[in-house]
């Protein structure tokens, strides 16, 4: 996606959770609605225009959400398809429109992002959960020192109130009975299929029981 207009930086600063005026060229951010529900995660590239790297199937949703405000800044929002390279250095995930010498293939990228609780939002996940329920690192995606942005009040509460004693967990290849067991003690965040294997992410107030029930199906977990 491309944002054009003399005030495009000012416009996106008021929409994205991260500070895109910082010197770093590629900035990971979240776009949320007023209630703090995640529209999508994104990488913003600050060039002559602003490029916003997101999944193709969520582009129309983000465009519609941004166009509620773009007219006040006289900005144009254009959906454009580009080849994106993904790099994982063992610590950080980096997306770039430049060709990389060591890009990760899409299947490996999606699985790595999933298991590190840094999922790239698709259409089916959009506007259904808040950042903490996905497991996003607020230190990575959010600036708590910049000015106002959409969803700021809710996201600030997530930082200061947190989700005490909650645990996120990803299970693989659950059958219907196993899913029902987990829904009795937790909340499903999303399901996704990768490499002919299904994965489901859940959040639990108490993880001990879920872990005992389905330890053999556990793919990853993270305390909040």
From TrEMBL:
<dbReference type="InterPro" id="IPR017703">
    <property type="entry name" value="YgfZ/GCV_T_CS"/>
</dbReference>
<protein>
    <recommendedName>
        <fullName>Aminomethyltransferase folate-binding domain-containing protein</fullName>
    </recommendedName>
</protein>
<dbReference type="GO" id="GO:0016226">
    <property type="term" value="P:iron-sulfur cluster assembly"/>
</dbReference>
<dbReference type="InterPro" id="IPR045179">
    <property type="entry name" value="YgfZ/GcvT"/>
</dbReference>
